[in-house]
Specification:
alpha/beta, binds ligand C2E, EAL domain-containing protein, 278 residues, binds calcium ion, 19% strand
């Protein structure tokens, strides 16, 4: 028995070591991956539930590496944050999104696209200047851009977070609170946060049809958000019946596999044209 546990200890050590090597490797290739096309963006529609039109999209990072294959954003975003690469990654994402917005506008497709913002971005005062200079460089309407910021990022330094959010708001970029319901027990921060959108976390929406409590949480969140003058986005809309319920709750936008998964820009464009003409 002692031997067995000694063996499994060795295995465990080897497993840890392999994982460590993998992480080091991933951290080492961030920069080239942004440049060589193995890192790219997909876009997932946010559908306006009143008009039935797709008016917004969320940009989601993807990474298909030559050697490692598909690396999930859950894995590499965390590594980017830990290794200090996230600032460069976010800058790259914003510039890619701005270029895409301009391409779409030239084709008559006018969309607001949201970008996920990490804690290092929000709390870095240099980030504001980079955002402003990107807006100037491409002279796009800042209303086409929005930032998704999670509750936990806001709570890491509420004062500085709110200060930064106000600066983005003044620039004309709208702010969404992401993963709402997962982060924080007190809601008092809501009145200080200059957000125009509240995104209800998919964990409350996915199992909606079978879960009375989830439905209550969502219904209450919609009322709460509206009382603060915010629009509500439900993520994780996977079924028709979920969509119908969300409409009866007065939810403003829906995002999820029921409409489509995130798509490459060209596929997104085709999807959107078809969806909006129905
Ligand atoms: P998130 O911001 O909460 O993004 C929503 C996630 O839910 C996405 O996962 C999306 O593909 C997934 N999703 C959308 N609809 C459905 C649905 O109907 N059912 C289910 N089960 N899932 C759905 P994804 O793309 O794997 O991204 C995971 C997380 O990685 C994101 O969560 C976000 O926190 C992070 N992430 C992705 N791209 C970026 C980025 O450019 N920057 C930063 N900082 N984080 C990013
Ligand atoms: Ca998000
Ligand atoms: Ca989310
Ligand atoms: Ca999330």
């Amino acid at each position: 028995k002692a031997k067995r546990s000694a063996d499994s200890f060795v295995l465990y050590q080897q497993g840890q070591d392999e994982n460590y090597q993998r992480q080091l490797h991933i951290i080492g290739i961030f920069e080239e991956s942004m440049a060589d096309g193995s890192m790219y963006l997909e876009y997932q529609p946010k559908v306006n539930l009143n008009s039935g039109q797709c008016t917004e999209a969320e940009a989601l990072l993807r990474w298909q590496d030559k050697e490692l294959g598909f690396i999930s954003p859950e894995e590499f975003i965390q590594l980017a944050e830990l290794s200090g690469n996230i600032r460069a990654v976010t800058n790259w994402v914003i510039e890619e999104v701005i270029k895409q917005i301009i391409l779409w506008q030239a084709k008559g497709l006018s969309l607001r696209v949201s970008v996920n913002i990490s804690v290092d971005d929000l709390l870095d005062k240099g980030f504001r200047f980079i955002v402003r200079s990107l807006l100037e460089k491409y002279s796009i309407n800042p209303r086409c851009l929005s930032f998704e910021i999670t509750e936990s990022v806001i709570m890491s330094d509420p004062e500085l977070a709110v200060e930064s959010m106000n600066i983005f708001k003044d620039l004309g970029i709208s702010i969404a609170i992401d993963d709402f319901g997962t982060g924080y027990s007190s809601l008092s921060y809501l009145k200080k946060v200059p957000a125009s959108e509240l995104k209800i976390d998919k964990s409350f929406v996915i199992d909606f049809d079978n879960n009375e409590e989830d439905r209550m949480i969502v219904e209450t969140s919609v009322e709460l958000a509206h009382s603060f003058g915010m629009k509500v986005v439900a993520e994780g809309v996977e079924t028709e019946s979920c969509l119908q319920q969300l409409k009866t709750f007065g939810c403003d936008l829906g995002q999820g596999y029921f409409f489509t998964r995130a798509l490459r820009a060209n596929d997104f464009e085709a999807w959107c044209e078809k969806f909006n003409s129905n």
